[in-house]
Amino acid sequence: MKNGVNSLLFEVVSSLAIVLCFVPFLFLGLKKMRQVNTYWVIGIYWLFNGLVNLPTAGFVTSEAGRAILQRINNFYTFTETPMVLLAFAFASSGRWRKQMIWVMLAFVAAESALLAWRGYTMNSRAWITGAGLVLVLGYSVTGLWQYLKKMEHSRFEDSMVFVYAALLFGYGSFLIIYIFAHFRTGPAAVTYNEADSFLLYYISLLLSACVTCTGLGSYGLRKKRVRRPLVSSYSSSSS
Fold it and tell me: How many angstroms separate the CA atoms of 143 and 166, rounded?
């Protein structure tokens, strides 16, 4: 019974998470969202997240479709961190933007050198994923700190704080899964359950996507307030 409940919970959570992954990309249909480069990168990032996870929910069953999605997954492994850093760079300005662009370029150069040296293996993929987790977590914390330091914020900054928080939570959970998957020793190696890790992954993905959609929706769906000029009682009486 327990296994049946866990299986049903996994199917529901994973399906909801995958569907929500496509919503940020759909937000680009709004004119206000299309005009912001940051939202384009965020939308494409979540689109890839949805595509690479489609086989898990059983949405793609053909061998040809799975082969195509596997190629997309391999491509996404090496572009995931650069895409997030690029979104952070677009959302920043001045010194922070230049720094993140240089970090992104350095990361691309490093992973290209690693692939040229070791090839596409599980070890090289693990190194790239681990380094990317640390970078995204670090810059997510930085983005939140920069937001908290300011007293007044624009609508764009208010929406991006949701993105920073979502990625901080999501990548923090992914880091825990990564550590247990690659560095488990002693009792942890015995108690490690891959099914539980997948469930934690999709719960984190679901919550992260939900928070991101909330942030983007607060920018794209909220109507801009039009301030009407105040008319003094003297002016109205004199007219």
Answer: 12
CA distances from 9 to 13, 198, 200 (A): 6, 11, 11
- Give the angle 102-153-104 at the CA atoms, nearest 5°: 10
Q: What is the pLDDT of residues 98-154, one digit of tens each?
A: 999 999 999 999 999 998 888 888 888 889 999 999 999 999 999 999 898 888 888
* Among 82, 79, 114, residue whose Cα is nearest residue 101: 82
- State the average pLDDT over residues 187-193: 55
- Which two three-digit tokens encode residue 108? 């691309």
Neighbours of 14 (CB within 10 A): 21
pTM, to two decimals: 0.85
Q: Are 70 and 96 in contact (CB under 8 A)?
A: no
